[in-house]
Amino acid sequence: MSQIIKGRAIVEDNATLLRVNEDGSFADVPASGTVLVPLRQWQAQRDTLIARGHVGVWLATDEEAEDIAGDLAHFALIALEFPAFTDGRSYSNARLLRDRFAYKGELRAIGDVFKDVLLFMKRCGFDAFAVRADKDINEALKGLDDFTEYYQGATDQPLPLFRRRSSAAH
Amino acid sequence: MIGDYAKYTMAVACMYVYDDFDQKIVDQRVAQFRDQTRRFLAGELTEDEFRPLRLQNGLYIQRHAPMLRVAVPYGELTSQRVRMLAHIARKYDRGYGHFTTRQNIQYNWPALENVPDILADLATVQMHAIQTSGNCIRNTTSDQFAGVAHDEIVDPRPWCEIIRQWSTFHPEFAHLPRKFKIAVNGAAEDRAAILVHDIGITALKNEAGEVGFAVYVGGGLGRTPIIGALIKPWLEKHHLLSYLDAVLRVYNRYGRRDNKYKARIKILVKAMTPEAFGAKVEQEWQHSKNGPMTLTDAEINRVSRFFVDPAYETLPGDDAAYLAAKASHPAFARWAERNVFGHKKPGYAAVTLSLKKTGVPPGDATDAQLDAVADLADEYSLGEIRVSHEQNLILPYVKQSDLFALWEKAKAIGFATPNIGLLTDIVCCPGGDFCSLANAKSIPIAESIQQQFEDLDYLFDLGALDINISGCMNSCGHHHVGHIGILGVDKSGSEWYQISLGGRQGAGASLGKVIGPSFAQDDVPGVIEQIIKVYVEARQDDEHFIDVVDRLGIDPFKQRVYAGRTRAEAAQ
């Protein structure tokens, strides 16, 4: 079983990620264990998946946080994909899920995830990171400490520096 | 030795000064980039991974070597920082740097493994290369005469600094569809070219005297030049950052990512229409308006305090000795006419040092020249220097009584060419001599035109005339807004030049029209000469070149230029 970063710890990944098959059909949902399904599968099999439980959904970058905003209570976790780390749409989806739709559960970054983007992800509300299999996860974890101060408010610290400067200076 | 620079440190009253937070962020960036460079050299980061990371720190791999672009936030420099730029040119490069059309400076010859050290040196004088390239929010640009201009309504610099801090490592907008440029103007005349930026901001005052902003989006040059559209005529000042967040979020989510040539915000705004885009932003903004990103008066005051006026002397008005020197020295008078800008304080002037001497690539300065400029700034301009987007340097606080002495010293370092705003004050990208994106060279074109118009009497007679040269469609030389625009194009492996007329920057910004088939390099100066002749024959009284083009259209120019040319000489 592969490992992920959860919070600041390296833990075993207990979720199975399903993708839509090449012919457009949905993959079979395993009988047990936490499963992450693509948005379309969630929409197609919503009732069955709710009955099964232990289900999460993952969004591609062209899918929108609004598409699942009404279903958040059903999810064990949500994952947002970075097909390439240079596609930053999942940052906005993450912030919308946290800041606008008040999602409190696990929010996992999947795809092109490695050291140099981990802190951006964390700041946008991700708390779990499925680091690319070919990257050193211990090295990646250090990326969360690249910076210790930030100017603008974001999900992890909604107060911008200008609202903290004077109190933090002493 | 970096320590040597400490002795030059002097109190500069009118510049943002880092506190421990600002310094820590820049220092941590140096450490992060050092680690990224190490991992790249060790093979832990692939070229494809390292490229976007290094670009976000201004590092390109160019024709000859890496090119490092260093940020000059809104064009403000101190003598201490200019000495550091000279030191970097000397120690890590080949003794010169190139000021860009976005008020930055770039070095063409640093070695990749030295770049972390360069950044560490820069950090000692509160400078960096953060977000000077890549698909992120770039350096915010502004009026080179901010704070001293006679026509200023609102000093744009505090707002530029507030935007700089907000945009620095903004996590949500670190990987936008494409690069993103913001410019702020606060004067009657727009010297920041805000209408050709992704976001253009005009700082203004309402009838009650309160500061607010007019926000334009979707302007830009490049392949699809578009003039920005006004989407917010009045934005109350406290809401600046939450509104910018909303604009960027709409762009980050909906801007095209399938085609890099259609990925700028201007394409999205055009596709949605400015009205629909503005409405979408408004809708998004309702969620964050009045939230934590709302600027506080304390923060606005904190930042504004850095930009208060220096201790000006009370002077009676125009300096008698200065006026007398102009009367008795025609060459000095000529320089004063072109290179001295009206100051808001009686008896003071802002001086433009021309980096457009014939034979020198436009915008280039050597380490010795940079050191000399720093000395001039310390002696005559309270230690402050500005960079203009026309690639010249400005001394903003010069007493008129010092102008003659300053002129003589500027002449000695080759920075006193009296050509600001004239035909030879050419805006020019590095072009095919340096840039790996370029289709054609641009520096030799600028030089050949400057040589063609060496006669100063003739040059002054021709008056205000902007020539802009870009070596490719990326339009770093802003050719679309040149009165005469020259664009390098590649035709089956050889370099040709397309000429456009009628572009202009500023409040009435417009895009030039291409006059026809492109020309070979050797023909360009002659073609410019013919265009100028049409102007000289047609002008009425003191009519400027651009006004004649507006009045007559491009046809008379076109006819003259192409008369007698065969298709072989000017191939499409």
Description of the molecule:
- The complex is a heterodimer of chains A (170) and B (572).
- Chain A is of the alpha/beta class and 170 residues long.
- Chain A has a single domain, classed as Rossmann fold (3-Layer(aba) Sandwich).
- Chain A is 26% helix and 21% strand.
- Chain A contains 6 helices and 8 strands; from the N terminus they run E-E-E-E-H-H-E-E-H-E-H-E-H-H.
- In chain A, strands 2-1-8-7-6-5-4-3 form an 8-stranded mixed β-sheet.
- In chain A, strand 6 (77-82), helix 3 and strand 7 (106-111) form a beta-alpha-beta unit.
- Chain A is globular.
- Chain B has 4 domains: 2-123, 2-Layer Sandwich (Alpha-Beta Plaits), CATH 3.30.70; 148-305, Sulfite Reductase Hemoprotein, domain 1; 320-412, Sulfite Reductase Hemoprotein, domain 2 (Alpha-Beta Complex); 427-562, Sulfite Reductase Hemoprotein, domain 1.
- Chain B contains 18 helices and 21 strands.
- Chain B has helices at 20-41, 47-55, 79-92, 115-123, 157-167, 240-254, 265-272, 274-288, 297-304, 320-328, 330-339, 367-380, 403-412, 443-452, 456-462, 524-538, 545-552, 555-562, and strands at residues 59-61, 66-70, 76-78, 96-99, 105-107, 141-142, 182-185, 199-205, 211-217, 229-236, 340-342, 348-353, 364-366, 384-387, 393-399, 427-428, 467-470, 484-491, 494-501, 513-514, 519-520.
- In chain B, the strands form 4 sheets. In chain B, strands 16, 17, 18, 19, 20 and 21 form a 6-stranded mixed β-sheet that branches.
- The N and C termini of chain B lie far apart (55 Å).
- The chains are: A alpha/beta (170), B alpha+beta (572).
